[in-house]
Amino acid sequence: MVRSLYLVAVYLAIFGIGLGAPFLLTLGYVWVDIFRPENVAWDLLPDLPVAMVMGGAAIGSYLVLDRVAPPRISAILIFTLLFCGWVTATSFWAVVPIPAWNKWDWAFKGMLFSAFIPFVIRSRNQIEAFVQVYIFSLAANIIPFGAKTALSGGGGYAQQLGLINRNFFLGESDTLAAAAAMAIPLMLYLATHTRIIPRNRWTTIGYTGLALLAVLTIIGTHERAGILGLGVVACSLWIKSRQKLPLAALFAAIGMVIAVTAPTDWWERMSTMSNIENDGSITVRLKVWEWTLDYVSEHPNGGGFQAYRINEFEIPVKGAENGEVRIEVGRAYHSMFFEVLGEHGWLGLGLFLGLILLSFRALRQTVRYSRSLPHLAWARDLASALQASLLVMLTVGAFIGIAFQPFVYYIVALSVSLREYARRVLEQEPAPLLVGNESLALARP
Amino acid sequence: MIDTFAILTTTIAVLYILVRAAAFDRSLPWFEKDDAQSAKAAAERDRFGS
């Protein structure tokens, strides 16, 4: 009850501060969307749509009070809106309508809100505040999970050590591992560029410590895809580092600490990565992916959200000599690409991949715009961190169904905000190093 | 205890960030700051919106 009272007070305080400007209400929505107070402790207001109130207030206050210098109508905005429309359309012919509309309800809101974010998150101050609020909202699950893993060696596969004790969103170990791996580049970015929390030795230690807790969280979840994500983070940091040898030594030291301290059950789970033949979960995944390809060959527009619930296939029983099989029914996709393909068909997959590619392009443009302006070094570094997050998402997402999780769309939205910021600054300042079509394109209104 | 620590530290951090961001943006008059960082943030707000 005390926890509920405290969270109600925090919610009201955030809402009160948010009344100062639409971008503050938007940050409040990010906190509600990632922290999920209603899933942590919410005895007092269980039926109040807290996210809708905060999100509606953000959009409403923007329409009434703001609307200064909106971003250009970008391809990302068009793709996001088209994707929103298409997932709504597929819900009308969904093969399992009730679960489909249930998923649509939360997935659609996150996608649509991501289209709104670039309209209110426009300046450096607002962009950094967005990253900070996102990281600290996520940290509410990473701190307890990482700390408990350090103290106890982790709770084993699919154990819930975070704040959310339901098998939903960050309460699911695979989703938490994906979010933690994607957040590490952003935590390390804040360690060197934080301004809202004034940078000093303690903030550097704090953000680096948070990144280490994210690593411990990934280890504690026993998620093999999370370990792959960690590998991608390490590679991207190493490639961009100017001190390659010390960094390689640091990674080797961290790897050795993990190797020495990880419990036996963790090693048993990780060892299955190199033993596909005998791993039941990988066999099931391959069967689900095969079923998805068969399904979309007959239904190219997909089966709507949660279409996997109708799948059914045979799996050979391990060790049986007489060809014995067991029947598997309603197994999840365990891949964001097959998730989108099975649910929204080839057009849906095209729109989803298009969004990711356009985000990469926007971040590459940001790097290019900010290269000639030293005071935009922070934007260049943030763009690099977001690119690393997207790479981690592509790797981890190949084995986890995170296609409609809000943090995926926050990265997409941030890529637009950042690119638009760099473009506006460049339009107002001389850019001596830009040549040819680049400078002409920027000079256009 | 760890859960409570995580809730307290992260929510206090979020509130602090919101107040500081509002102060730099000069969105909330009672939190306004009068320094170079706020002046730049407010100038960007005037150009790009708040």
* Helical/strand content category of chain A: mainly alpha
Helical element count of chain B? 2
Oligomer: heterodimer
Beta content of chain B comes to: under 5%
Mean pLDDT of chain A: 87
**CA-based gyration radius of chain B:** 14 Å
**Helical content of chain A (DSSP H or I, runs of 4+):** over 70%
Q: What's the count of strands of chain B?
A: 0
Number of helices of chain A: 17
The rounded Rg of chain A comes to: 22 Å
Compressed to H and E, one letter per element, the order of chain A equals HHHHHHHHHHHHHEEHHHH
Tell me how many strands of chain A there are: 2
Sheet-strand content of chain A, in percent, reads under 5%
Q: What is the secondary structure topology, with strand pairs?
A:
The complex is a heterodimer of chains A (445) and B (50).
Chain A: H1 2-18, H2 22-35, H3 37-40, H4 50-65, H5 75-92, H6 97-120, H7 124-152, H8 173-193, H9 201-221, H10 224-240, H11 244-261, H12 264-271, H13 280-298, E1 312-316, E2 325-329, H14 336-371, H15 377-397, H16 406-428, H17 437-443
Antiparallel strand pairs in A: 1-2
Chain B: H1 2-25, H2 36-48
